[in-house]
């Protein structure tokens, strides 16, 4: 008889999470409770996921997801702006003139 992973599948891999559950874990991990202890957050998530009628993953699985989401690179808007970022984050041509003036002004010593 194959071993059964508590909360996972019989082949040892965790169940795939629904898109809604992944979004909940991501938002709570990075936006709602970014500084909360992972284990405490995992337990809160279990309660919330079960309220939604879904089967919740184990605490250890949730901790792994929380860690993954918290360790992802920041969004582009979270990095300091530089003219070199324009190729990845373009802006309308009519605003570029003003942004460059502000950038030039902020670099001057007063």
In one word, what is the shape?
Answer: elongated
Beta-strand percentage? under 5%
- What radius of gyration results from the CA coordinates? 21 Å
> Biggest β-sheet, characterized?
none
* Helix count from the secondary structure assignment: 4
Approximate helicity band: 40-55%
Give the overall average pLDDT. 81
Order of helices and strands: HHHH
Low-pLDDT ranges:
1-9
Structural class: mainly alpha
Distance between the amino and carboxyl termini? 76 Å
Number of strands: 0
The number of domains is: 2
What does this protein structure show overall?
- With 110 residues, the chain is mainly alpha-helical.
- It has two domains: 19-71; 78-107, no CATH class.
- It is 51% helix and 0% strand.
- The chain has helices spanning 19-32, 38-51, 59-71, 93-107.
- The termini are far apart.
Short summary:
By secondary structure, the protein is mainly alpha-helical.
List key phrases describing it:
single chain; about 110 residues; mainly alpha; about 0% strand; elongated
Layout: helices, strands, pairs:
Layout: H1 19-32, H2 38-51, H3 59-71, H4 93-107
